[in-house]
User: Fold this.
Amino acid sequence: MKLIITILCLCFWMNIFAQDISFKKGNFKNDKEGFKAAVTAIDKGNDLLEIAEEKVLLMKYAGNEFKSALEFYLPAHTFNPNSSELNRKIGHAYLYTNEPYLAKDYLLKSLELNSDAEPILYFLLGKSFQLEQDFETAQTYFLKFGSEADNKTLERYNKLNRKHLKECKSGVENIAIKRRMWVDNVKELNTEFDEISPCITADRSELIFSSNRLGNSDIYISTRQNRKWKDITAIEELNTEEDDVASSLAYDGQRILLFKFNNGQADIYQSKLEGNTWSEPVLKMSKVVNTDANETFASYDPQDIKVYYVTDGGHGGDQDIIFSGKKDEDEKYWGKGQSAGHEVNSAFHEGSVFMAPDGQSMYFSSQGHSSIGGYDIFVSFRDKHGLWGKPLNLGAPINTPYDELYFSIAANGKYAYFSSNRAGGKGGMDIYKATFWGSPKEPIVITEDHLIASITEPVVNTYVPKTIKISERNSLTVFKGKILDGILQTPIQAKIKIYDNSTGEVYTSVSSNSATGKFLLSLPSGLNYGISVEAEGYLFHSENFNIPVGSAYNMVSKEIALKNIDIGSKIALRNVFFETGKSEVKIDSYPELDRLIQLMLDVPLLKIELSGHTDNVGNDEYNLNLSQRRADAVRAYLTSRGVDKSRVLAVGYGESKPVDSNDTKEGRANNRRTEFEITDN
Assistant:
């Protein structure tokens, strides 16, 4: 009550010293032409403001109309800066552009010039103070609007007014929580124009984003060098004369989702990195998915089976998050779009979506839920039934009463990138980086390949309030490197398939780049993975990653040299498993052995020697006998599935041919192996 009295007294005294000069002929007798031009401009601005206001009340984006209205209002304001009504309209327009922080001075000037204002001014002032996180003053103005507006105005604005009051309450609660994170403006990427939709590779080496710095929205790429983003260049293959907007990178960095406008309608497209060039974008999903509505910001699901995306054809015409799954490997057929669920989609707009590499976390922006104003970033976790749980607000300093959108988090869980039009930026929407801090956690990743020396120092996992638990969800291993010809050391385009060894099913697959041989993939914790690298004319290569639940983030970098199908070529079968001291082939070895069977079917004249090897634990005779029994067991599996016995020789070598030291646990694990060598082709 004291605050209301103070505001009213301030308005009274301001009105004594300020004079409202309305746009009337009598006030501008000395400049009739200037007056006429100003009135004409205001009339045109009013038409646009009316259209924009109706869009806002329908919860539709109206930034373009408000921006166009300002192009007429601002010259008129230069002619006469002391019109209370014009100042209010300029403030109104700025509030719904990407420079909403410019609104407050105009709105206060409007109140200063005329304290007997139209009630809508109190609503606009409430929104302006809300942006500054002065939630108490904002609530006062929203309540004042609610008590003074006539029934017709209140009926139109009541939903928004109640929404903003709720946001102020959320804001007070949210800002009070101290979180161990901070946010920085990525200045090297930003301009006075809009920079949106930062898409990062899993290892954070490249970032793709969109900007309208040259007029239409175009797509740009930047590389990270010495902790700075440099060499910003437009991706010409993806840009047209229309708006082209990046949406998300695949986790291998070899594909990108974007949306393009055709005759005013947005659809989702995909482009693939072919060597050093991005392919011409093609429709990602069929017209069953890309409907007559606008389908825009989209994100790959880690297993590359589904795509999550935003459509304005949601329930009641809202912008909702829905998903579609592919029905065939060639991606010709897709299922009809389905809602991500009532927990995710609110009664207001959802603006963007990002599926985290762990496959269990969805980050999205929304005007609803517990937003503190504008679009906020939320996270939802998938439960054991596959349903998305109640969204949690990521809180300050990521979220503000301004708009925060296009959130994407790095595989290490320590850094995230998003866009915001908050005050203090370079202008419009800017790209920001969030840094999370938490207690260090040692990795417990186990691998049965020569990887230990190449594992980098783990980066500390994400810390956010306990209710969010991002750190527990971001237990990932990033496996990156190059596929090269073993003799020539030239890049090879190879297919990399990732298997769930417990089921033998393909978890996902990626390809190495044809020009560089580079590959990149993220593996969530909780599974034992078999990784097969296959290229025509080469022996396949295998890796094994057992990543227990709760493992910390790790990055493994490795060059893989594929061997030609020549006599003498030898390969270790890293995904063939036995119980300790036993020779029965375990069921999770079958996918690896089935790949060997397929190789022998593809090359009918191929003959191999299967060899069993042990470490030096135990006596020589026992180890020799065990290795022979294991080699025989693998041979029996191959022949039981159609491989001619004459093509496979089984030999046990015991501990006689080590490939590593037997002095360490890792070395002994490397020496315990099954290999095959080509003896004829």
Notes: The domain at 566-681 is CATH 3.30.1330.60 (60s Ribosomal Protein L30; Chain: A;).
